[in-house]
Amino acid sequence: xxxxxxxxxxxxxxxxxxxxxxxxxxxxxxxxxxxxxxxxxxxxxxxxxxxxxxxxxxxxxxxxxxxxxxxxxxxxxxxxxxxxxxxxxxxxxxxxxxxxxxxxxxxxxxxxxxxxxxxxxxxxxxxxxxxxxxxxxxxxxxxxxxxxxxxxxxxxxxxxxxxxxxxxxxxxxxxxxxxxxxxxxxxxxxxxxxxxxxxxxxxxxxxxxxxxxxxxxxxxxxxxxxxxxxxxxxxxxxxxxxxxxxxxxxxxxxxxxxxxxxxxxxxxxxxxxxxxxxxxxxxxxxxxxxxxxxxxxxxxxxxxxxxxxxxxxxxxxxxxxxxxxxxxxxxxxxxxxxxxxxxxxxxxxxxxxxxxxxxxxxxxxxxxxxxxxxxxxxxxxxxxxxxxxxxxxxxxxxxxxxxxxxxxxxxxxxxxxxxxxxxxxxxxxxxxxxxxxxxxxxxxxxxxxxxxxxxxxxxxxxxxxxxxxxxxxxxxxxxxxxxxxxxxxxxxxxxxxxxxxxxxxxxxxxxxxxxxxxxxxxxxxxxxxxxxxxxxxxxxxxxxxxxxxxxxxxxxxxxxxxxxxxxxxxxxxxxxxxxxxxxxxxxxxxxxxxxxxxxxxxxxxxxxxxxxxxxxxxxxxxxxxxxxxxxxxxxxxxxxxxxxxxxxxxxxxxxxxxxxxxxxxxxxxxxxxxxxxxxxxxxxxxxxxxxxxxxxxxxxxxxxxxxxxxxxxxxxxxxxxxxxxxxxxxxxxxxxxxxxxxxxxxxxxxxxxxxxxxxxxxxxxxxxxxxxxxxxxxxxxxxxxxxxxxxxxxxxxxxxxxxxxxxxxxxxxxxxxxxxxxxx
Length: 824
Ligand SMILES: Cc1cc2nc3c(=O)[nH]c(=O)nc-3n(C[C@H](O)[C@H](O)[C@H](O)COP(=O)(O)OP(=O)(O)OC[C@H]3O[C@@H](n4cnc5c(N)ncnc54)[C@H](O)[C@@H]3O)c2cc1C
Known about the structure:
Structural class: alpha/beta
Low-confidence stretches: 27-38, 385-395, 815-824
Strand content: 15-25%
Helix content: 25-40%
Mean pLDDT: 87
Bound molecules: flavin-adenine dinucleotide
């Protein structure tokens, strides 16, 4: 039997794998009759229009984070599986002769023809849509053309809210707020009238909306949906669906030609074309089984999906829009955690039907697996507080039936995973992935797989993520010991794969902690940083940035105050005194940052690292210099500490405070390290913080001299940097420490582990290597080049950023308030 597959995308690839595994392993699940298992006489040819073998299109966006073709590639087909013809497109089908003609004119005969040609991105027919600078987003070639970072994007959406097909208005509102915070300007309910172009060059200059608005842009990316690539089928007379797609029955066979099959996004089954990989995989399995004489039928499509939209979790599952008769909706919209959750339950509230999660979708896989199962508790408990966030309570993996599907991309049930664990096939997530394929699609079920391993009593490592088998602290020791200075070297020597948004910033932070002298924007480190670090400034909700120079201890001369005032006036910046006793200047555009910082650096200011996981400020009261109650010079000490620790990168932000007497006007006990003057010296408190979960710091030493105090804070900070988990504040680090503050004291005061000399040395190296990050940018044209709004028009301001006046200062224009933003 000659099988010819047109299209080597994700589904075509899976089809070949399934066919091969059935031919070689005697079938799967007894579906295929044994007499059909012999592969003799079955030959498979695959035509691939793309010049490369199939790759993980779902993970395409990771290309922007540095993934390359090789890391996205799916397992290679060997010649025994198929004759893969790369760069060969099918041009026409002659069904009568059972022959496909390629674009090179070659004729290839078939007994069975499988169409797996996927979709193409739909581009609305607006004028100018094909001008230079317009792009789509489907293949690696598209992304090669788009590989540009540091832009200020706008999203134009026709629907009244984002992702209208997947989520509801409430979720869409929160999503718009969250992506808005990342510097993306969202225009919902907006119709694109035309793409505007430069009359001279013909290049894109922006987009004109029907309401008269013009959005200036150097690039336009169309992401307006997909259409099945069914042209070959149409031309040879195969029926297609009303919205496109080759019409097939539940066996994936064409309804009019028994020798033609269609699978994946090009198929129209039950009147519907599916734009997700899981239904495509199910079709691949069905067609492979049927071709070998099996009885499989398409099991139906689970259209649940979890996506990361610009880093924001968005998920919908089951009957997300509550279309079931009498369905009830339980909604939790938490503006503090910035999470939106909706569960749809049956009219008697006994069965979960579906739901929507935005901002935090950590419970997605669990909740999706519970759809259709009886609810054993109040549904709101599943999406409130700890339940939705950390899985501490509410939905428990133990409560799921064995038949619950944990991985919907590969249709893997809880029972199958447990069998793999109990049978000793797998003892960790990579092992489970290898033997069941679960977690190898969109990856959203990986947290549930971890919970399953834990509930089965398999000890879980503290690995940072699946790319590194060690904890952050262990990785830091390895990097320090081996003297490694790049992420590439770390992952090549001590990790696997290409990294992710957990391990990349963690490694970036470790490298910055260990090598204060290396600039964080140089080499590949620039791409590892998050948005704020990448621009050495905090991005604000309207896409502008804040400028926060260091004001050590909160002490500032009138001359420097004057410079801040002049800069703010000249650049039209909003000014505000911060809680950390410095002055924020808000509203700077990306391309203005270097000019602003040039003025500030010339006047003696430095970066305040308000954007970094690093020392922020050391706050002080006026102390004995001015205050009648002060017993020590708190300002002098605060300045000394702030200058000593400036630029020190750490697992999370670090704040300090120094109070000149027990009245505690500097609120030092709410800081990571807080110092309070006594008659005889200084008391040191550690592990405090304000914020969402306030905690008072613990007393570590009493009546220390200035030198003793500084030595102990040095060790405290380096010990924290070396041993904390990623994004762990000092408070939770101490709480999680075996022996808590007593152990900490024994290590950094009594030197019980004999490491104090090494801690002291590390801090001395940091102090010696420190250089102001902003001065270093201004001195280097390569670093300066990263501060432009438009790649094709360096220095051009973004015309969409507009302001209005409030209480005598400029603030973002009301257009921004159309966005349903929540407080941070
Ligand atoms: C950016 C992005 C993110 C996505 N995220 C998700 C997600 O999170 N979850 C999810 O479930 N899905 C996601 N998808 C969708 C998912 O990638 C698709 O559902 C899946 O790739 C469909 O597989 P397919 O094989 O049917 O089509 P494709 O992967 O598109 O493969 C079709 C192949 O056929 C080739 N071809 C077409 N015509 C011919 C011809 N005449 N001759 C030879 N070859 C031809 C094409 O070049 C292509 O290589 C995403 C898609 C994109 C683009």
